[in-house]
């Protein structure tokens, strides 16, 4: 049990005073002069009660200071970019019955058949460095989409073909399909949509991404 308070429990005065004095390195500027403590309780502890000095209220705190600027709760989804349940967000960019959406199991059969193809991983570099399917080509899709969005707004000058465009040209010349994968199946939908916008139709989205791959195909594949 943990309790934050400015009151000292009965019988703990001496212990608390010693602990406070050993941790008191001077007053912090702009803080409440009262002493605040964090009290912990453990049935099997000795002593059962322990206290720790914690920082007092700051006068310039945006929430509890003398002139607070945050006066109400903010929207959780807007602030965190996630749903209130912390459940993964599932985008619906492609139609659910789109023929070019395949399962991780279906893609594993394609790999086993040794059919020539390109596996495109569109996650961020930090995620790709953690784990990836052998032989996959890495092209982060987010910077490409951001660049295209800037072009549409007229905020960007004409640039050379990006890596995704080059890959589409290569796949066309070599007559190879592109299978797109990400972590959960969201970015891969956006990538397939962008490939189609470029005129490349022979592309497939692996539904559920690497999460589905780990669950249904390769249980030893890292999950994060």
From TrEMBL:
Matching entries from InterPro entries are given as: GlpE_sulfurtransferase, Rhodanese-like_dom, Rhodanese-like_dom_sf
Q: Which domain of life is it from?
A: Eukaryota
What region holds the Rhodanese domain?
113-222
| Pfam families cross-referenced by the UniProt entry | Rhodanese
Membrane-spanning regions, if any? none
For this chain's UniProt record, which GO biological process terms are given? Answer: tRNA processing
Q: Which SMART domains match?
A: RHOD
Subcellular locations according to the entry: Cytoplasm, Cytosol
The primary location reported for this protein is cytoplasm
Q: Recite the UniProt keywords alphabetically.
A: ATP-binding, Cytoplasm, Metal-binding, Multifunctional enzyme, Nucleotide-binding, Nucleotidyltransferase, Transferase, tRNA processing, Zinc
Alphabetical GO CC annotations of the entry are: cytosol
Signal peptide (residue range): none
> Is the Protein transport keyword given for this protein?
no
Gene Ontology MF term list: ATP binding; metal ion binding; nucleotidyltransferase activity
Entry keyword annotation includes Zinc: yes
The protein depicted here goes by the name: Adenylyltransferase and sulfurtransferase MOCS3
Organism the protein comes from: Smittium mucronatum
């Amino acid at each position: 049990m943990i309790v934050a308070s400015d009151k000292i429990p009965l019988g703990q005065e001496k212990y608390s005073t010693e602990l406070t004095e050993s941790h008191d390195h001077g007053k912090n500027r702009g803080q409440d002069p009262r002493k605040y403590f964090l009290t912990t309780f453990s049935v099997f502890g000795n002593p059962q009660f322990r206290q720790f000095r914690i920082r007092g209220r700051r006068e310039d705190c945006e929430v509890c200071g003398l002139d607070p600027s945050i006066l109400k709760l903010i929207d959780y989804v807007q602030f965190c970019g996630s749903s209130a349940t912390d459940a993964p967000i599932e985008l619906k960019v492609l139609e659910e019955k789109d023929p070019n959406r395949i399962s991780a199991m279906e893609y594993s059969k394609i790999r086993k058949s040794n059919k020539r193809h390109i596996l495109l991983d569109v996650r961020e570099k930090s995620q790709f460095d953690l784990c990836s399917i052998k032989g996959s080509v890495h092209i982060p899709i987010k910077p490409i989409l951001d660049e295209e969005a800037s072009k549409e707004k007229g905020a960007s000058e004409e640039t050379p073909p990006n890596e995704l465009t080059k890959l589409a040209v290569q796949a066309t010349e070599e007559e190879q399909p592109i299978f797109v994968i990400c972590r959960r199946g969201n970015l891969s939908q956006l990538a397939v949509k962008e490939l189609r916008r470029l005129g490349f139709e022979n592309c497939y989205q692996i539904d559920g991404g690497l999460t589905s791959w780990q669950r249904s195909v390769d249980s030893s594949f890292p999950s994060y």
